[in-house]
Amino acid sequence: MMRALVLFAHPVADSFSAALRRVAVERLEARRWDVDDCDLYAEKFAPALTSEERLNYHDPEFNRASVASYVERLTRADALVLVFPVWNFGYPAILKGFFDRVFLPGVSFRLVDGKVLPNLKNIRRLAAVTTYGGSRIRAIWAGDPPRKIVTRSLRATCQAEKTRYIALYDMNRADKPRRAAFIARVEGEMDRF
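User: That's the sequence. What structure does it adopt?
Assistant: C-alpha cells below.
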C-alpha cells in the first residue's frame, strides 16, 4: 500500500486551497492509499527556526529532536503532496518553515566529503497543487520560484520517479467554471498519481 504525506498550508478552512486539499486526499484514499493529511495551521506547526536549532543544524542526533514526529511522517511516506497558495511569489511562511525545520541534514540530504547527497529516497512521487493570484506570465517574469523548487530542488532531494506541478494561475480572476475545471484536473492528476 502506498502512503502519502499531504502537506496543507492555508489558514482558512473554507478556502479554495482547502477544497483542493480535500480533492487530493479523497482521490488518493479512493485508490486505497494510506494518507497522512497534515494541516500545518491546524496542527499549529511552528515555522521559525530557533537559535538552538540553527546552532545544532548539522548535528543529526540533535537537529530533529524538536520536529521528530514530522521527520517520522516524512520518512514513512512514499509520496509527498504539497497543497498551498503562492503568495508574493513564494510559499506561505508556514510551509517554508516546514522545509527549514524538517528538511534537515540526515533527513532530506547527507553531507559526504563536502557534497550534498539526496536522502529522501523513500519519496518516489512528488506533487504540488497550488494557485497563483497572478498570471503565468507574471510568475515567469518573477522566476516562478515555487515551481522551480518543487520540480528541481525537491525532486532532486527525493529523486522522485514521478513529479507533478499542478497550478491554477490568475486565481484572482478565476470564475466558477474555471475553478471547477481546475478541481477536475486535480482529480484526474491524483487518479493517475
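Helices lie at 16-30, 51-55, 60-63, 68-76, 93-102, 136-141, 145-158, 176-192.
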